[in-house]
């Protein structure tokens, strides 16, 4: 346990309404909602923000909520973002406040992110000392459905301009309450490809009359391993994983086609482009060499998440100043998961940081739970960051 223990007025005040915020977190946990269906959560967020004096705008990205709080005459604007959606997972925590929505679960801690930001919003509304504009952005559908992109397409930063934006994600396996910062590329782009190797089916005993897509696909699986090892520069990185290969059903029939499903990750746009180009080239040529054909559906997903240098340095400085060196996880490295906050960071400079969730089950695991002990740490951090940025 490495929870910061400094006598701090912000932490003391947050501690006063922490029981209420923890029960709010657990209430959201009990009632998880899938992407773009966060109606109850969104109502709850909007109702609280209004109660605390925020100007509230709803409907961006469907269930998105933007709260704005102005103080003084300063012109600077800071945005803080949290995600509200849950996952299609059957919860197996056995907690008294476990999901009551069958097959849906807050297995990524977005219940915790939402409540952490609400807690900070409440403090800042009631006691915050700042001069400028604070925007709190609650987005739908972070899990694969690009809720951030939807909000951007519907004019998020045109309607609600921000000079800088920040977001955070809890991180199992990192000591509870430790803050983690990475400058530059921090999370990977996430693309998918479905490759259908089209041959010509026939009798398994008469292969000379068929074009066997199984052999072509097997060869393609091996050939694709050369993209990262031979085409990506040794000091760069990328991932090409073939997570599924399906074809045929019985031993004596050569199937018509075999389908491969890939996930592809990169930490730069150059490598991302290279991976796409080589996967397509190799698939086509490899299939062709067997007399088959490769039909490729290549879909780009979330972009590389790049933390901006200035904002990341500021974010780290605030942590250092208010929580001390011990509160920062040294040597935290970029992760190959992806995150749609990346779209927001393409438009506005900012930083996505991580907050240790302690020794919990991993994200997206049916046994995972957000650690309530880190809620006040995250909230106090947001407060300090806002007061510094709008100081
Ligand atoms: Zn997730
Ligand atoms: Zn998440």
Walk me through the structure:
This protein is of the alpha+beta class. The protein has helices at 9-16, 18-30, 39-51, 110-127, 147-153, 156-159, 213-231, 269-289, 309-323, 341-347, 375-389, and strands at residues 55-58, 65-71, 77-83, 132-139, 164-172, 179-180, 184-187, 189-198, 202-203, 238-246, 253-254, 257-266, 293-300, 305-307, 350-358. The protein contains eleven helices and 15 strands. The strands form four sheets. It has a seven-stranded mixed β-sheet, sandwiched between helices. A four-stranded antiparallel β-sheet has the order 10-12-8-13, with helices on one face. The chain has a two-stranded antiparallel sheet with strand order 7-14. Strand 1 (55-58) and strand 2 form a beta hairpin. Helix 2 runs antiparallel to helix 4 (110-127) and helix 9 crosses helix 11 (375-389). It is elongated, with a radius of gyration of 24 Å. The model has no long low-confidence stretch (mean pLDDT 96). The structure holds zinc ion (2 copies). One zinc ion binds at residues 108, 143, 363-364. The site of one zinc ion has 4 residues, from loops.
């Amino acid at each position: 346990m490495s929870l910061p223990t400094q006598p701090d007025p912000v932490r003391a005040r947050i501690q006063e309404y922490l029981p209420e915020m923890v029960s709010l977190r657990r209430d959201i946990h009990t009632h998880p909602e899938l992407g773009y269906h966060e109606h109850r959560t969104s109502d709850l967020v909007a109702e609280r923000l209004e109660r605390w004096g925020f100007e509230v705008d709803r409907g961006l990205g469907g269930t998105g909520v933007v709260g704005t709080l102005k103080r003084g005459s300063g012109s600077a604007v800071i945005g803080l973002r949290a995600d509200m959606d849950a996952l299609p997972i059957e919860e197996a925590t056995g907690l008294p406040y476990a999901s009551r929505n069958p097959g849906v679960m807050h297995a990524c801690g977005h219940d915790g992110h939402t409540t952490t930001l609400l807690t900070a919003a409440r403090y800042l509304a009631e006691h915050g000392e700042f001069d400028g504009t604070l925007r709190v952005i609650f987005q739908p559908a972070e899990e694969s459905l690009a809720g951030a992109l939807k909000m951007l397409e519907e004019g998020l930063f045109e309607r609600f301009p921000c000079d800088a934006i920040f977001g955070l994600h809890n991180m199992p396996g990192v000591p509870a309450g430790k803050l983690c910062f990475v400058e530059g590329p921090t999370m990977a782009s996430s693309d998918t490809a479905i490759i259908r190797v089209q041959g010509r089916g026939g009798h398994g005993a008469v292969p000379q009359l068929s074009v066997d897509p199984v052999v072509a696909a097997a060869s393609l699986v091996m050939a694709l391993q050369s993209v990262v090892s031979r085409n990506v520069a040794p000091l760069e990185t990328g991932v090409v994983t073939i997570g599924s290969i399906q074809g045929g059903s019985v031993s004596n029939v050569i199937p018509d086609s075999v389908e491969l499903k890939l996930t592809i990750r990169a930490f730069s746009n150059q490598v991302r482009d290279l991976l796409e180009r080589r996967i397509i080239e190799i698939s086509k040529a490899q299939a062709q060499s067997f007399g088959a054909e490769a039909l490729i559906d290549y879909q780009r997903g979330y972009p590389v998440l790049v933390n901006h240098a200035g904002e990341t340095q500021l974010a780290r400085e605030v942590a250092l100043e208010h929580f001390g060196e011990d509160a920062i996880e040294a040597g935290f490295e970029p992760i190959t998961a992806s995150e749609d906050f990346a779209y927001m960071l393409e438009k506005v400079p900012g930083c996505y940081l991580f907050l240790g969730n302690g020794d919990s089950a991993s994200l997206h695991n049916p046994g995972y739970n957000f650690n309530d002990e880190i809620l006040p740490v995250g909230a106090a951090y947001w407060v300090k960051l806002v007061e510094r940025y709008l100081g």
